[in-house]
Design brief:
The complex is a heterodimer of chains A (about 260) and B (about 210). Chain A is α+β, with helices and mostly antiparallel strands and about 260 residues long. Helix content of chain A is about 20%, strand content about 40%. Chain A has 2 domains: about 90 residues, Carboxypeptidase-like, regulatory domain (Immunoglobulin-like, Sandwich); about 100 residues, Immunoglobulin-like (Sandwich). Chain A is elongated, with a radius of gyration of 29 Å. The two termini of chain A are about 55 Å apart. Classes of the chains: A alpha+beta (about 260), B alpha+beta (about 210).
Chain lengths: ~260, ~210
């Protein structure tokens, strides 16, 4: 009997470790949304007619949404106004990949720019790219202070490829393409090893909201949910059932006896 | 949400009084099976968002940038009596976040964020083993506002609980938990829901906390 129990125990353990994995995170794609239209109001974002993001304002960047790979229709509507579509786009997303969809341009020319985010990381290195989403800024270079351009001649709506830098802290500047004038100085930009980043240049050079650069970490090392239980408490819970039945039974019996005694008296 | 919390609570009733067990069981009977998610091909969670770091001509304090983030070594959640050691974990052969070797400890996802950093700091802990409760048996009874502290030597980071959610395994918002975010968050994960000897626990509880700066 003891032998049987230990065999059953072994089997139970074996089952615990070869559970089929039904929640396959690898079939999903990851999508986030950036509001980079300087004069657009707060917006709601709909994916295939369902609201996914509510009340995003200029400069807001959402977390990544988990979506099954496939084709989607993305609509941007004024916050709380389900009837009006500000702009819409079809988005095709592949399993295991990360994407950023950005609402860019002034409201009268608003459009959705979609880009794939790099989620392959290198130890000790940072991969960085620049997205030019400032409608009234000229084509620009991005360079270390006084140095040669890392990214050159990037125009509005342009998104650079990723460049690989050693992890560390950089003093950078944004210059009109081909010039050494400084449009914007970016001091102490801290880039961590094993991380990828997009620097989004947004806002207006002349007017409000003002031109600025946002630095966002891209991608991520996805995993599926951890297997954090083996059922010990669930058995306790089912014991509770029996216990409850026993309590109810005892109470009923007690009541019956009580009634009998009363009747006898 | 309240229903789900009740369901979870019924699993962790530990009182020795019959009354509590009885109430806990009734709670389980009444609410234990109502966490079914709507039958859809996907669940679209409404996501959080935050403004990314703004780069400026004002240098950041480089020393503090790196010193304020650390690999967490100790976890304490006073409100649910958790005080334990943190192991580093990775991804198992089936692509799942790893779990700690010891059931009285928790696992820190080493491919996520460090404590105090921008991003998701992810910890997994067991609800139970074959015999009984483990370190996160009471995780679902944490309340919004409860403080969670990560430490390593002199360094510490305090987080404030903002949400307690229970998901079907297939409906987990995995990207919100594991991918890059502009927020400074802590995610605590354990098992929940009905247990099936073949499939394991059906659900996961995810407690999300925000760094107190």
């Amino acid at each position: 009997m003891k032998k049987l129990m230990s065999l059953l125990g072994t089997l139970a353990l074996a089952f615990a470790f070869i559970l089929p994995v039904s929640a396959d995170g690898h079939e999903n794609a990851m999508v986030r949304v950036l509001h980079a239209s300087p004069d657009a109001p707060a917006v709601d974002v709909y994916v295939d007619g369902e609201v996914a993001v509510e009340g995003a304002e200029f400069k807001d960047l959402t977390d990544y949404l988990t979506l099954p790979a496939g084709d989607y229709n993305v609509e941007i509507k004024p916050a709380g106004d389900a009837e009006t579509v500000v702009v819409a786009a079809d988005l095709s997303i592949e399993a295991g990949k990360f994407y950023t969809a950005a609402a860019i341009g002034q409201l009268e020319n608003i459009e959705i720019a979609a880009m794939e985010d790099d989620a392959n990381f290198e130890d000790g290195k940072s991969k960085v790219r620049v997205a030019h989403f400032s409608p009234d800024a000229p084509a620009v270079d991005v360079a270390p202070k006084g140095g040669d351009a890392l990214f050159s001649n990037l125009e509005f709506k342009g998104v650079s490829d990723y460049g690989t830098l050693d992890a560390g802290t950089y003093d950078l500047e944004i210059r009109p393409a081909g010039s050494m004038d400084v449009v914007k100085a970016l001091d102490g930009v801290a880039l961590e090893g094993g991380m990828n980043y997009t620097a989004f240049a947004i806002g207006l050079l002349e007017g409000e909201p003002a031109f600025e650069v946002l630095l966002a970490a891209d991608g991520g090392e996805m995993a599926m949910a951890p297997e954090t239980g083996q059922g010990g408490l669930a058995q306790t819970a089912s014991m509770n059932w029996l216990f409850a039945a026993a309590v109810v039974g005892a109470a009923a019996a007690g009541f019956y006896v009580f009634r009998r005694q009363k009747q006898d008296a | 949400m309240e229903r789900q919390r009740l369901a979870s609570t019924s699993f962790v009733v530990k009182s020795k009084t019959l009354k509590l067990i009885f109430v806990g069981t009734l709670t389980f009977l009444a609410f234990g099976t109502v966490v079914d998610a709507p039958d859809k091909s996907f669940v679209l969670p409404t996501v959080d968002f935050a403004q990314p770091e703004v780069l400026s001509a004002k240098p950041v304090d480089r020393q503090s940038f790196y010193s304020e983030r650390f690999i967490p070594a100790q976890l304490s959640i006073p409100s649910i009596g958790v005080e334990t050691v943190i192991e580093a974990v990775g991804i198992d052969e089936q692509g799942r976040m790893g779990t700690p070797d010891r059931i009285d400890q928790v696992g820190w996802y080493q491919f996520g964020a460090k404590a105090g950093a921008t991003g998701n700091v992810v910890l997994s802990g067991h609800l139970d083993d074959l015999n009984g409760p483990a370190i996160f048996a009471d995780l679902a009874s944490i309340r919004p506002g409860d403080v969670v502290t990560l430490r390593n030597g002199e360094q510490s980071a305090n987080y404030e609980t903002v949400s307690i959610k229970q998901y079907r395994l297939n409906d987990m918002p995995l990207a919100s938990i594991f991918a890059a975010t502009q927020s400074k968050r802590l995610q605590l994960i354990t098992c929940a829901g009905p247990y099936d000897p073949q499939e394991g626990y059906r659900d996961r509880v995810v407690v999300t906390a925000q760094l107190i700066e």
